[in-house]
Amino acid sequence: MTVLPLDQIGLGWRSHWSALWWLFLLYRQPKEFQESLAKLPGWQQLLAGFVSYIHAVPWMIFTCVVGRLLLFESGFVELRSFYSDSGGAFWAHGEWITRGIAIGIATGIAEGIAAAIATAGIAAGIAAGIVFGIATGVARGIAAGIVVGIVVGITFGLVFGFDEGIVFGIAEGTAIGIVTGIAAGTAISRAYYLPVAGWMVWPRPWGRWYPWHPVAWDQMCGIPFPGLDRLLVAYFEHDPDAARAEIKRLINTYPSQQWSALKANAAIVARDAAKHADLTHLPVVLAALPEGDSGFLRQVPRLRELAAVIAERQQQLDQATYPTVRKQLAELLVQQIEHFRDQIAGFEEPLRTEFRQAASIWLDRARVPFAAALGTQTNTTTQLFRAGDPVSREQEAFVYRTAVVAELQQQVFLATGCPGLILYGRRRTGKSTVLRNLIGFLPSSVPVGYVSMQNPQAFTSVEGFCRTIAGAARVAARWGADPSAEPADLPGLMRVLGWYDDHLGRAKQRLVLALDEYEMIDAKIGEGVFGPDLLATFRESIQLHRNVTWVFAGSHEIAELTHAEWSSYLVSARTVEVLPFTPAETRQLLTDPMRHSRLWQDEAKRPRFAADFWGTDGIDRIHADAGGWPHLVQLLAETAVDVVNAEGATGVTDEMYGRVREKAVVRGDTVLRQLLLGEVKSPGEREYLTRFRKLDDQPPPDDEAVERSIRRRLLVEAAGGRWRLRVPLMRQWLRDRG
Hints:
CATH class of the largest domain: Alpha Beta
CATH architecture of the largest domain: 3-Layer(aba) Sandwich
Strand content: under 5%
Structural class: mainly alpha
Low-confidence stretches: 80-93, 104-122, 134-176
Mean pLDDT: 81
């Protein structure tokens, strides 16, 4: 059947069915009915409303007659009326029906249309009038003779009782009011759906039947339906996409069903998390969980914190390459998931049941790498040393640079605010390692935001730089974003930093923003990507935002940057220098490389190397050959362990060390070339350095610029008025491969 538009509905049979369709739309989705009605001129709105009402009257009478006959003629309710002695039950029904409908129409027109027109316009008034009129007419027509009441009905009874009592007496007026209240409340709230809705969830939810549930097609249900959350979850198992869309609709547009939809949403997120094979994605999955101040919603932040630790452990396990570390990480991952499961047991539903089930699935997956790690039998020496990228103190050989971190901490906590720091150290001396491992060595009140200026997102445009800095601050501080959203320019960045500075001050915290490889900014200024305004922004932020500490880490002194007057913009910044290892730091790295890892709570199980593993005076020999250069110490140690394992030995012998050194020169060809010749500024400097191929020492260069550059790069040491290369491994590379 083609439904006629509202303005074409008349009194014919075809119009009758169209009117009923529109009335059903009004019943279940009044907003859509009102929007369609509002498109008509005012007089057509009134006419369409009146005609639609006329089409409803026969069905109102039919419903009232059937309802009253079922109630009274079945004997379920005794009809007590002065009509019962003369005129018969039929006329008694007819009289009450007629009066009920009349009262309903009058109430609908007077209280519905008039009031709603005054407040919301003609279309809303007509819609409200039709709904209220029909509901009141049917309710009064059916229920006028019922004499049973409940608390809600009594309230209505008291009101309507006095009104009706003038004509019919207080007793019958009160009874009519009571049952009218019950009937109207039931009709308006749609409580009569409860039996059908209950069948869909008992004894178990029938997900495929959800589209027939009243909530799915009627937007006017005023009472929450028991078990709706379970039905929605079952619907998700039947049709995931449709269920997600429906849950979103209920949360956004259906206040009476919102709580059930929120519970269903949480259960679905838990099941999504259980299905994820990669636990590192848990924070992303759990971001879909709703939060709030009541019920289970207030426990969501804590749940995310517990899950974030699992994700971190999984990420560490995925990145670990050494069997000893993988074994420990696999064990810790299993323990962390078990801890999560135990903690969740005290949470409210649906978090408790759903996430305990998810944790059981995670445990089954985590025990696979755990069993593999435990089953790894090896007689080889544990490899923990890494020459290359910045090392992680949790999984790789790491030295706590006491002097550097202590000075950083001292400057960060200056009472008046840190004036900015320049973390200076030549290439491969461990600056990035220091920055990446500051978390855990600085107090928890000092979050660290790390940005590498070799990241294209940071150096390709001012907008990208601003967004990257703001993102690093947001992740470090773990607060919500500044209301101004992501900054697109320098003024926007200043607003964001001001917002964080204010929050940090109130929380009595400090934020470290570390820019690694900051020389890239100078290069991009030379290319025109950045302008001096960026440096002015740094200076203003340092002076204004006293709870934010800027750290500029690089392998060049500020005087070596040539495309801007850096010293004038960072005039108050203080320099912290990262020097090569001391002999004590080299010894700690080679004998207790995992001292600062938090993976081993039991110190007795922490991997260690006996000093004699490295041979007689082997530690001092490695330190001397590397000149204490952190990367080169790691290179020699890593190579030594590999050679020991390859030859089935138990330690490094003097004869073996020669092969270790030769192999390290080959492995480290790129870094040795870069350290020795990659930063040469002039032909005179290259010529001077390459003469060490044949000479053990030579007089200092005559050119002051060459002399200053070579000294700055920590390449030489003076002895008896002559210079020699301070790193023997560099000299061997120069003679073998330079």
